[in-house]
Amino acid sequence: MAGKRILMLAGDFVEDYEIMVPFQMLLMVGHKVDVVSPGKKSGEQVATAIHDFEGHQTYTEKRGHNFTLNATYVGTKAEDYDALVIPGGRAPEQLSTDESVLDLIRVFVAADKPIAAVCHGSQLLAAANVISGRKVSAYPACRAEMILAGADYQAIAIDEAVTDGKLVTAPAWPAHPAWIGQFLKVLGTKIEA
């Protein structure tokens, strides 16, 4: 299997597990992953947040690690990549106000390239207006946004994922085995035990 070139979109207070785990897993199986953030250069960092499920009505949030970007956002082109990954956390809310980010996502969708979004990452898909008629999961608090964007919102368990064509989405980081597993299938990644 030839490794794919994958772009990951990040911003301050991206969810810690939702950037760290997919980044490391995709590298582990041989893909090249560039992580970028608007307004930041390669070598700079984004702050992360840890969202946990501790028995309250919603998740709790704590400061996470710093994540060092390995590519620069300026000049990033969808044409240079085979797929896109959008982690969740607080970052998608802010990134959704950046028209260049939304345009970048639209190019990936128009080219029918694989896209994986987890948790609040689906907010970027809604803001880019690219999920109408698609089966999409997201963190349950994002349900209304998905429906308003015309998506067929999938109310699945927190550890499940859904694939619609080349779009793979999941509600939160407990779904990593299902979400990343389905994304690897969409990418055509072969893993042998």
Main sheet characteristics = 6 strands, mixed
Q: Count the E strands.
A: 11
- Helix and strand element order: EEHEEEEHHEHEHEEEH
Helix content: 25-40%
Number of helices: 6
CATH class: Alpha Beta
> Helix/strand-derived class?
alpha/beta
CA radius of gyration is 15 Å
Integer average pLDDT: 96
* Strand-residue proportion: 15-25%
As residue ranges, the low-confidence spans are none
Structural account:
With 193 residues, the protein is an alpha/beta fold. It has one domain (5-50, 59-187): Class I glutamine amidotransferase (GATase) domain (Rossmann fold, 3-Layer(aba) Sandwich), CATH 3.40.50.880. Helices cover 28% and strands 25% of the residues. It has 6 helices and 11 strands. The chain has a 6-stranded mixed β-sheet, sandwiched between helices. Strands 2-4-5 form a 3-stranded mixed β-sheet, covered by helices on one side. A two-stranded parallel sheet has the order 8-9. A hairpin with a 7-residue loop joins strand 4 and strand 5. The longest helix has 13 residues, at 16-28. The chain is globular, with a radius of gyration of 15 Å. The two termini are 15 Å apart. The model has no long low-confidence stretch (mean pLDDT 96).
